[in-house]
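Hello forum,

I keep getting stuck at the same step: I have a sequence, I want structure tokens, and every attempt I make locally crashes halfway through. Rather than fight my setup again tonight, could one of you with a working pipeline run this one for me? It's a single chain of 244 residues.
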Amino acid sequence: MSPRGKKTPRGTKIVFISPKNIISDFLRHRLTDPRARAEDSRTEEFNGGSTNFSLNPTIGSVSCITSVTVDSVEQTKWKHYYIDPQNQDVIFYSNTAAGTDNVDITYKQGTSNWIYPDKPKVSLSRISFPRMNVLVIGGTGGRLGQFDSNVESVLHFQVDVWSKENQPQTIDSIIYEGDKLVEYFAYEVTKAFRAHVEELHPALYDYTLVGTPRDMPFNQEMQCFHKIIEFELKGIDVSEGESN
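Reply #2:
Ran it on my machine without issues. Output:
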């Protein structure tokens, strides 16, 4: 997608930014995994003078970006820079840092994760849970003017929360298990959007919760308790990519 709604020149390399990856990055940042699979924080320091900074995690891979500063000035994700999760790059929209500036990038890292832009497989073992996935289950779009104008889309998202039987987790000295555990995280998702939704702008905006977190039947195939959260967000040119 194109977070800032700009047209891409011909002949440039395109990095597709999936709306599901944007939401996954947001939730990994704002929620804490009770099993700490990717909660290790690492900061890398770079010299300025570039728009592309490749990260080198010491444990597994990058989970999410939590902070980017240029000479101690906080930069805004999706406004000043975007993320190429496949290549683990942070890419600025313009060369905002001089060659003598310090660019500090802080991120979470780990050998596995717990929030993904796809559904869990039946074959996953118990250590892969609790787990969440992000889906786009619908949406509409319309041009903001004439035939060559940007397209504004309304995306309908679904976040699924999954937990195995007999898998208690202690959170803030309280033990949650089964249906109580998925309910706890479902409301943590809605709380994260309520408190920090501005972090998605300008990539996504106008958050609307579609009802309250919804109970689902116990999933016999997955042997999991299950709850879903549905919400809508708007975005500009979500079918396009960013030039790199």
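Residues 5-12 have pLDDT under 50 and may be disordered. If your local run keeps crashing, start a new thread with the error log.
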